[in-house]
Amino acid sequence: MLLFELDQRTTQSKSKQIVDRLLEMMKDAALNPGDRLPSTRKLAELLRVHRTTVALAYQTLWSLGYVELRRGTPPVVRCRVPIMEPGDRESMSAIDWSCVASPASEEVYRLFLTRNAPCDNTLDRKRLSFEFIKMDPRLFPAGRFRASLGRAFRDEGLSLLGYGDAQGYEPLREAIAVRMRTHGISVTREEILITNGAQHALDLVLRMIARPGITVAVESPCYADILPLLKQYGMDIAEIPITGEGMDLDVLEDRCRQSPLHLIYTMPNFQNPTGITTDQEHRERLLSICSHYGIPLLEDAFEEEMKYSGRVVLPVKSMDSGQRVIYCGTFSKVLFPGLRVGWVAAHPECIRRLAALRRYGELAPPGLLQAALSRFCSEGWYEKHVSMMHKVYRKRMQTALTALESFVSPEWARWTRPGGGYLIWLSMASHPPVDWEKAFASEGIAVASGRSFFSSDPDGTFFRLSISSLDDAEIDEGVRRLGRAFQKVYEKRGIAK
Amino acid sequence: MLLFELDQRTTQSKSKQIVDRLLEMMKDAALNPGDRLPSTRKLAELLRVHRTTVALAYQTLWSLGYVELRRGTPPVVRCRVPIMEPGDRESMSAIDWSCVASPASEEVYRLFLTRNAPCDNTLDRKRLSFEFIKMDPRLFPAGRFRASLGRAFRDEGLSLLGYGDAQGYEPLREAIAVRMRTHGISVTREEILITNGAQHALDLVLRMIARPGITVAVESPCYADILPLLKQYGMDIAEIPITGEGMDLDVLEDRCRQSPLHLIYTMPNFQNPTGITTDQEHRERLLSICSHYGIPLLEDAFEEEMKYSGRVVLPVKSMDSGQRVIYCGTFSKVLFPGLRVGWVAAHPECIRRLAALRRYGELAPPGLLQAALSRFCSEGWYEKHVSMMHKVYRKRMQTALTALESFVSPEWARWTRPGGGYLIWLSMASHPPVDWEKAFASEGIAVASGRSFFSSDPDGTFFRLSISSLDDAEIDEGVRRLGRAFQKVYEKRGIAK
A338 and B112 in contact by Cβ < 8 A? Predict the structure, then answer.
């Protein structure tokens, strides 16, 4: 029998009280699956309330899945399935998912399992990591952004919580168009598509062109995370070596003469992973090759905003009179990666096609974050933040390069000297096989192995250093440790500093 | 010559003042592209500040893209490209984007152009729209959600603004796992992948299995927006007719015997577009067909939470001892579509593969919104909101069905009587060609044409009514107008009420 009374003094409705008390009893196992509850009439009598009050409570419990209701019989506590622990299910599927997934998806899955994802945001200050491009959260203008978010919610909340525009929130597209003028690019909001970060932009562009027999030219080494996408879409990869001046354009032209290329993918600024930046002449020649062979150019400007040294020329897109360039940018490498906001700027005919693919891929990006970002930009905080980032990272890059001079012998490695961004590329002197990961771990540092930036096996040993998440003192100490790790390896072989 | 002085009383830095004044002059065309600025030394003398103050101001202007700096010469105001108006660029691309895009993408693009997207959130109360599934924003618990968002930001802001987990924010996966128990489904957070809404879940599942020669069985009519995805991935579509009891399982079994099916896609509750719900027996038989032929089942439970009539059985996934079912759910049809949060629940081997595809498609979903939603659920607001929605829509659906009885003759149309959700499906009596859109527009209403829910041409005329965005009075008035529109068409043909 049910033993509870209703509180007559509270403002809580009686029906709500009945729901809560019954839920408590289920939780405490005073009521168990299969147990019958009193009929509506009986419980109403017991608690001295109206029958509709009890009926309403039972209806609520049913709608929450706690009881079964059948006409003419009293409610029964529903048999609730137990929650299993993670792992319990592993062996139980009657389906072999490795066969359900396509061979291409399986290849992507294997890559996923072998690579670390940069999703751990806890700061482990004992281990100094040069591994990922994750800006230092100590520099996040979180308070300012929170205020912009609050104002966006207050002014437009109801509309932002509804379905949005597949092409992206219009005021944000406008703000981006205005911002792009500072990089010499003239586009309207109709030529902008908001994406879930630059990676999503690459996905949409590749999805648009995907069909059998497609070949995409990439720099070698190149941005590691485009390689799984190219595999996913069954595309052939033409690896064009990168020199100190950027993609080797002689090799590219030779390749164009051999057989058709369908897209050229490039990062002209602070290339990931090498940090190399191309000059005006290189950009013009690249564009003229695209023009001559009728190939669209995908310009990945992931660090356009981080041109802090004063030596970097305007983007290829700024010279693109033939509208051949699909430009993609992102807020992830200068503001917050967790917003997942990037964009594509291209001819409207291209943008509308990408918007169609996004529409059926996931409808539209979330309105609230776009509106907050749009305000953050139009209120001037974005420009201020970029200025601060320039100041901080100009110094940090200088610290890193000075430390490399001090602690790493040119006999062991050569490295790039980027004019912006976060990345330094080390080409190691030849050496017998070394367990580098262990060598670095024993010094309490982590760096990205060069291997993952090549589609085929590279000729040599390379490392990518990202200075994005460390401050000056940490960079100095980290490079010092890196030098010690190299020293141990190379001194054994008689290549002392 | 520059004519301005610095304000000595303000707290603003002198360098900042110089930047602001020069920007003002550029805006007012007192400074124009190509104009030389004074040398650092000269301006410092004029303003009686230190040279480094001016140098810093020039550096800032450079980093914002307003001036060119060259060693040894004074800075020059950069030639800024004009912003064109939308449309100016249309004819200027040297690339034919319709050829760059694959034939499949072009087909998706054509569909996109012909269909309306439900992205306009302005309420036009003169025109009563039954066209889209967009919940009434008047019911949005925006204030509550804003508070949850504020708390999430305050407590975890820095971490949420960094890169997140490709599988989704863990506490939200946990909250969803707990919620799914109320629908009889036992899964752990390891069996959940957060997606950008249910549409994104469908995209990931199809992407996982995509390869030449894949056939997917769908109900006919079915959810319109899966059709472009199937085309995008080059899949064959097996249309299985739907009866009043759901997908015709005799036809499905016949089809299975003919040639392999690789996936069966179904919406067991309040099917979009028909509103039809299957019973226990149907669900068990469907699962046994999947089991017998070794086919994974994609259960789209887009309105699982809207079972407000008390007559709907548990999901197919709850009976899925063989772990064959890929279940997808969403917050878009009961809370806010603008959050873009849905999920997949499936065997971990399946979930990890989908997570890999999401990782390379767009990295991870935005942390802030997931954390806010997770709090909204764990603080109990989600359950409360669902209860309210049940109460409201139970009444609205009754209003709609009563109005149909009153204003629409059974001689003109038959319709479904759903036990939940938002959708009613009208099958029209045969008639000569009619411009229905015009007929409805002249009465100030809009409904969804049945055509878009079929992969091949349907045999008959159908309309889908969504009661999601109208209140009781509006529904009554809307159905009254619908009846008038029908009356005008059918009375001409002598089929009076």
Answer: no
Tell me the residue range of the domain where A471 lies.
115-137+384-492
In a domain, residue B107? The reply is no
Kindly provide the ipTM of the predicted complex, given to two decimals.
0.86
Chain B contact probe: residue of A99, A226, A336 with most B CBs at under 10 A = A336
Tell me, yes or no, whether A361 and A393 share the same domain: no
Print pLDDT tens along chain B (497 aa). 566 888 888 878 888 889 888 888 888 888 888 888 998 889 999 898 998 889 888 877 776 667 877 767 788 887 665 445 555 555 578 899 999 999 999 999 999 998 755 545 555 667 899 999 998 999 999 999 999 999 999 999 999 999 999 999 999 999 999 999 888 898 999 999 999 999 999 999 999 999 999 999 999 999 999 999 999 999 999 999 999 999 999 999 999 999 999 999 999 999 999 999 999 999 999 999 999 999 999 999 999 999 998 777 899 999 998 999 999 999 999 999 999 999 999 999 999 999 999 999 999 999 999 999 999 999 899 999 999 999 999 999 999 999 999 999 999 999 999 999 999 999 999 878 899 999 999 999 999 999 999 999 998 999 999 999 999 999 999 999 999 999 999 987 776 55
User: Do residue B427 and residue B307 come from a single domain?
Assistant: no
Is the residue at B50 inside a domain?
A: yes
Sign of CA dihedral A347, A214, A223, A361: positive
CATH of the domain at B48: 1.10.10.10
Q: Closest approach of chain A CAs to the CA of B150, in angstroms?
A: 8
- Cα B246 to Cα B274: distance, rounded to the nearest angstrom: 9
Residue of A nearest to B195 (CA): A362
Instruction: For residue A65, give the nearest of B90, B106, B182 by CB distance.
Output: B182
CA nearest neighbour of B353 among A89, A362, A108: A108
* Residue B392: CATH number of its domain: 3.90.1150.10
Predicted TM-score (pTM) of this structure: 0.87
Check whether residue A233 and residue A371 sit in a common domain: yes
Q: Do A100 and B157 touch (CB under 8 A)?
A: no
* Same-domain status, A181 and A38: no
A402 and A457 in a common domain: yes
Distance CA(A305)–CA(A387), nearest Å, equals 10
3-state secondary structure of B220: strand
Contact between chains at A100 and B262 (C-beta distance less than 8 A): yes
Residues sharing a CB contact under 8 Å with residue A17, sequence separation 6 or more, in sequence order: A6, A7, A10
Q: Which of A282, A268, A265 is nearest to A420 (CA)?
A: A268
Verify that A145 and A122 share a domain, yes or no.
no
Residues B206 and B264 in one domain: yes
* Spatial separation of the C-alpha atoms in residues A372 and A153, rounded to whole Å: 8
CA distance linking residue B280 with residue B314, whole number of Å? 8
A101 lies in a domain? no
Number of domains in chain B: 3
Asked whether residue A154 is assigned to any structural domain, the reply reads yes
